[in-house]
């Protein structure tokens, strides 16, 4: 299985975009753990360009990486055990240590909570119940890690079962042409609009079935794509029409957002149109991004191994850095542009400190999603992606 550097760069870029997206959540009217006041309606317009596909793409590239990891670990059982260690240890660490400041800031800034952080941590966070509408303890943004672990276990079970001898050949035939663009869109229409109507994710792994119908197939598609030169070539061939379709679908949501900004409630038919437009936007953008990455970014660079390794630690810490950063900045009452710039710098600095510091401490490496250190300091410890 040849390494596709374009997919590495796409993974790095997707997580960088996710961090900027979560910074943007501070400024729009949509619910988030920390908010500026007043919010800025127009910020939603660039965020709507990202919102439909960002998570589906992350699950797809995680499925893609899982194919290489399965080959590395040879058996499905070893793969599941290894991935469980790499995912569940950081998830537990995140729930216990990284996420609590987010809940405290949300309670103090939006719910009138007055107790100190220490009191919150020792008396309220581990209540295993509700506090003013918030479930505690919680995983917040780390829900993605929990879902990824679940999909990994299911993949391990599927791989351990007898596999039809021409399964990959069938994948190549189905997705080796225009089907790579059209068939997933039809699946999204059927599952996300016609049979069910999905407006958002619940982040509750047991009660988020409609989201699983989007994310798990994307994960499996990524696994199949990692072994399919035909499907990858089709994405390269069809990326321009896909980009046009994604932009056209996005234009529909922009018109709706401009007409009904912020938390305004449009008529039902307008809401339905928004949900319909979201589906081609989701998959067409993914096809376009993968096609561009494969055609133009499939080359290595000296920064790639470090950035590939840094993705998971960045993901673990970034939202807490954002939320705590907002809490620090709110008393300063900065202009919105200055607040955005300061918050971006705080978040980037926190991510790098968390990664560069944690990778040098042997016992901390598993907590932040890194493998045990087995290389000399002059060499990257690993280029194996975790997410």
Q: In words, what does this structure look like?
A:
The chain has 387 residues and is an all-alpha fold. It has one domain (5-99, 139-368). It is built from 14 helices and two strands; from the N terminus they run H-H-H-H-H-H-E-E-H-H-H-H-H-H-H-H. A two-stranded antiparallel ribbon has the order 1-2. Helix 1 (5-25) packs parallel to helix 13 (304-329), helix 5 runs parallel beside helix 13 and helix 13 (304-329) packs across helix 14.
Portion in strands: under 5%
Major β-sheet strand ordering: 1-2
Whole-number tally of structural domains: 1
Principal-axes shape call: globular
Which H/E pattern describes the elements?
A: HHHHHHEEHHHHHHHH
Backbone CA Rg:
21 Å
Structural class: mainly alpha
Taking the sheet with the most strands, its summary is: 2 strands, antiparallel
Uncertain regions spanning at least 5 consecutive residues: 377-382
Spatial separation of the terminal alpha carbons: 19 Å
Annotation, overall tally of beta strands? 2
Helix content: 55-70%
Short précis:
The protein has 14 helices and 2 strands. It is mainly alpha-helical and 387 residues long.
Using brief descriptors, characterize the structure shown.
mainly alpha, 66% helix, 14 helices, 387 residues
Fold blueprint:
Layout (H helix, E strand, L loop, with lengths): L4 H21 L18 H5 L5 H20 L2 H23 L1 H11 L6 H8 L4 E3 L2 E3 L6 H18 L6 H9 L3 H16 L14 H17 L3 H31 L8 H29 L7 H26 L6 H23 L29
Antiparallel strand pairs: 1-2
Helix pairs in contact: 1-3, 1-12, 1-13, 1-14, 3-4, 3-10, 4-7, 5-13, 8-11, 9-10, 9-12, 11-12, 13-14
